[in-house]
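Whiteboard transcription, Tuesday session. T.W. wrote the structure tokens on the left side:
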């Protein structure tokens, strides 16, 4: 019997005015699973992320369950308390949106712990564990974020999310703004994180880059104009796509490397 889902979207719809941006999306993310959501601009990917975070309101009849709790029902102080608990952590496409450019990267990483009044020794332990998980050296985080490369900043942003020990990591276009070398390091870090954390953490990775998702995800969900065009194991979706839109996305990438096994193990590159 499989473990209960950490995240379950049940008939999720989102309207912007009279325009339906997401239309009856149903998907689940289970412990230890990495689910990739892919689609072109305008497909509804970012709106899906915002809905999970309760940054936009879902339409009537939608349900968003985190560890079995329907968070669409939360309002006011209940919603604020749920957000502070940190079960779901969001990693921005631009890490400078989460890393304060005026303070050291180290301070930015533990900011959430400081606000939560986590003792200094425990905060230091969590920071070290998070940095190790993303393959980032301690000496680098003494710098301001502007003194890091794009890939280093993104890994620091992921570490910042990890220190609060979330159940679900939600990453929105985590590699799209990076050069090829930095992109590969971040992808490797996410693969290593998946392998190391196992059932303690699930990830929902949103991207238009199907090649990167092919390398790191267990399951691939293809969004087309607000609806799910295809949902299945990544290897099957890449090798035998069932929907013409999926084939179009795959054909737009010169070469896609799929994982050799369900749990590839690649150590993150330290730099």
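and on the right, the sequence the group agreed on:
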């Amino acid at each position: 019997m499989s473990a209960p889902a950490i995240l379950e979207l049940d008939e999720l719809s989102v309207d912007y005015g009279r325009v339906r941006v997401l239309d009856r999306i149903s998907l689940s993310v289970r412990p230890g699973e990495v689910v990739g959501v892919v689609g072109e601009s305008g497909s509804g990917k970012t709106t899906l992320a915002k809905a999970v975070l309760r940054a936009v309101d879902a339409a009537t009849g939608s349900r968003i369950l985190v560890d079995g709790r329907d968070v669409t029902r939360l309002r006011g102080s209940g919603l604020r308390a749920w957000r502070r608990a940190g079960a779901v952590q969001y990693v921005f496409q631009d890490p400078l949106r989460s890393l304060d450019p005026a303070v050291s990267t180290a301070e930015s990483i533990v900011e959430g712990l400081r606000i939560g009044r986590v003792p200094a020794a425990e905060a230091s332990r969590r920071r070290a564990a998070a940095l190790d998980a993303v393959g980032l050296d301690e000496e680098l985080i003494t710098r301001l974020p502007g003194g890091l490369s794009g890939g280093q900043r993104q890994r620091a942003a992921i570490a910042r999310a990890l220190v609060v020990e979330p159940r679900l990591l939600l990453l929105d276009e985590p590699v799209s703004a990076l050069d090829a070398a930095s992109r590969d390091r971040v992808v490797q870090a996410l693969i290593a994180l998946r392998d190391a954390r196992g059932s303690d953490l699930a990830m929902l990775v949103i991207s238009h880059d199907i090649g990167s998702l092919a390398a790191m995800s267990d399951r691939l969900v293809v969004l087309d104009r607000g609806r799910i065009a295809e949902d299945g194991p990544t290897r099957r979706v890449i090798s035998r796509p069932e929907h013409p839109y999926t084939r179009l996305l795959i054909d737009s990438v010169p070469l896609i490397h799929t994982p050799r096994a369900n749990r590839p193990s690649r150590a993150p590159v330290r730099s």
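Someone added at the bottom: Confidence is low (pLDDT under 50) at residues 260-271.
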